[in-house]
Amino acid sequence: MKLPRFDYEAPATVAEAVELLAAHEDQASVLAGGQSLIPLLALRLARPAVLIDINGLGELSGVSVTDGFVTIGALTREFAAEESATVADAVPLLAAALPLIGHEAIRSRGTIGGSMAHADPAAELPAVARALDAEFVVRGQSGDRVIPAAEWFEGYLTTSRRSDEILLEVRFPAVMPGTGVAFQEIARRHGDFAIVGLAASLTLDDGAIGDARLAFAGLADVPVRAAEAEAFLVGQRPSAGLFEEAARRATAGLDPPADLHGSSEYRKKIAATLVRRGLQAAARNAGERQ
Amino acid sequence: MTDIAMTVNGATRTGSVEARKTLADFLRDDLDLTGTHVGCEHGVCGACTVIVDGRAVRSCLMLAVQAAGSEVTTIEGLAPDGALGTLQQAMWDSHSFQCGFCTPGFVMQASAFLSAHPDADEQQIRAALSGNLCRCTGYQSIIDGVLLAARRSRAGISEGISEG
After folding, report:
1. In CATH, what class is A7-52?
2. What is the assigned CATH class of domain A179-289?
């Protein structure tokens, strides 16, 4: 359908954007890449009175490295992050997930911050953020806040960003030596939202697992960490039997939602398979990266 | 209404639009460039794909006001003098299309992709075209056409070779 009417604001500075957000509160939506918001408008699933288009805020684009963190501006396009040598070197898990987002033409416009702020629990980037304990920097009239990923994703399409705040950047810890990563997902077609996705990271220290991270997409209303399985893996040596047991532990307590793409049981079974595959791939990747 | 100006197929074009008008509707309704097709109008089918500042984008998911100041190429801009380019000729030769509704989207997406990845293999081409839907061909002939275009470009053959 054609888009419904809305007032359109295109602030030239972050300060102006913050003022506009404060003035319109929950009547306004922030327009970044528009690859989720415009469909929501077309389908009348969202009816904001005002769109605040932040595409003119060039200062929110770019990738930089400081003090062991890779900082990605909220307006950085997904294709730009995909092509970034810094992202490939220092946040390989993000680099592995980016090509799986939608399609070429979606990644031309879609932004890192937009995907994180939209917070679709089946999307790739929220799972990566949760796996890596990324931090979200927002600015409102009362100042800046830094929100850890564990507190950022609050529910289906819901984050802890207040309606008067704008997401400025996402900070990812730079990868530790000896780390291997994998992003695995099952989707009906290339580019579809995953039925289940998994972000996996393993750090090996003299052949033993020093750090393990597993975060699922598509299994709940937020991305889900498999904390018990992660703790179980630490201190052990990678093996098929170990990963089998990790898969059992990672999925034991899960009760995923059912929809036309898959039953709850099916999702749980896929999740276990992805843990096995993801850990094997991450362990291989750790060897390759050394 | 907002006054906008952009470069479309090499020429400066202007208009006065409501903020809610998509780039696709601006191209079709205001500029009479009806080669850009509007299918689903919510970013699923890829029929409205055009090239904005060198990248393939879905023109139904971009507002016309957001394209102000940009350089836009539509299907009409690929063969301005009426002669088919390498990609178009290769797709013609491969019988890549049937009803033609999805055609402009596929051609624009493939054009942008081959410009950036002239050495692409079949798997990469399939991934690049995964966001475009075709309900007639079964896709095989489309992939064949793009692969043929890539081969011809690499071999330096710019002229079309009719195999029919």
Report:
1. alpha beta
2. alpha beta
Residues A152, A116: contact at Cβ < 8 Å?
yes
Give the CATH H-level superfamily of domain B86-154: [2Fe-2S]-binding domain (1.10.150.120)
Asked if A191's CB is within 8 angstroms of B56's CB, the reply is no
Whether A51 sits inside 8 A of B19 (CB atoms) is: yes
Q: Tell me the per-residue pLDDT of A178-203, one tens digit each, with 9 for 90 and over.
A: 999 999 999 988 888 899 999 999 99
Which B-chain residues 12-71 have CB contacts (< 8 A) with chain A? 18-22, 25, 41-44, 46, 49, 52, 55-58, 60-63, 65-66
- Under 8 Å CB pairs connecting chains A and B tally to 88
Architecture of the CATH domain B2-76: Roll (3.10)
Same fold, B2-76 and B86-154: no
Looking at the complex, report in whole angstroms how far the Cα of residue A1 sits from the nearest Cα belonging to chain B.
6
Question: Where are the domain boundaries for CATH 3.30.390.50 in chain A?
Answer: 179-289
CB contacts, 8 Å: A79 with chain B:
55
* Contact in structure between A201 and A93 (CB atoms under 8 Å): yes
Q: What's the gap in Å between the CA of B155 and the closest CA on chain A? A: 26
3-class state of residue A14 by DSSP: helix
Cβ distance of A8 and B52 shorter than 8 Å:
no
Q: Distance between the two ends of chain A, CA-based, in angstroms?
A: 52
Give Cβ neighbours of residue B132 (< 8 Å, ≥ 6 apart). A103, B45, B46, B47, B49, B102, B105, B106, B109
Distance from CA of B73 to the nearest CA of A (A): 14
From-to residues of CATH 3.30.43.10 in chain A: 7-52
Hey, what CATH topology would domain A60-173 get?
3.30.465
Domain regions of chain B by residue span: 2-76, 86-154
Which A residues 178-207 touch B at CB under 8 Å? 189-191
Tokens of residue A132, six digits: 């890596």
- Please report, to the nearest 10 degrees, the dihedral formed by the alpha carbons of residues B40, B42, B45, B50 taken in order: 110
What is the per-residue pLDDT across B10-53, written as a single tens digit (0 to 9) for each?
999 999 999 999 999 999 999 999 999 999 999 999 999 999 99
| Complex ipTM > 0.95 | no
Start-end of CATH 3.30.465.10 domains in chain A: 60-173
B148: nearest Cα among B132, B127, B162: B162
